[in-house]
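Course assignment 3, question 2. Fill in each field.
Student: A.L.
Task: Predict the tertiary structure for the chain below.
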Amino acid sequence: MSNLEPHLADLAPHRSIERVVRAAAKQRDLEVGRRADYVSLRPPQRTIACYVHASRLSIAMDPAEAANVSRDLPVRLEKRNPATTYVVVEAAVVSDRYHEVLDLIVASIDWRAAGQHRAVVAGRLRLFEVHALG
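Answer field:
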């Protein structure tokens, strides 16, 4: 979380987005990245769980879970691939439904941390799970 603050300051997101991202970062260990128009949140050495934009969040979820969320929250869904749909949450929804959005971000981080990865094999998308050996 050490580089979250300068990235958030540079992005200057809506207050509700900044608040929920800080809360998620307090609950989970994260790697944070910065691009021109977003800050990315991911579990260490895993796929991005959440894209933080100035006025919205894009939260990675299993497509079935994303569909369930869309029945309960006013969000937009963006299908990324067969295994991932992004739940796009505008700042006003974050303000109104803060705790629910925080739970979604944390669940996404946990989902990504569980080891879902994508690989392209012979031009086709394949999903596989990575399990810790021990």
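Instructor remarks: The domain at 4-129 is CATH 3.90.1150.30 (Aspartate Aminotransferase, domain 1). Confidence is low (pLDDT under 50) at residues 117-134.
Grade: pending
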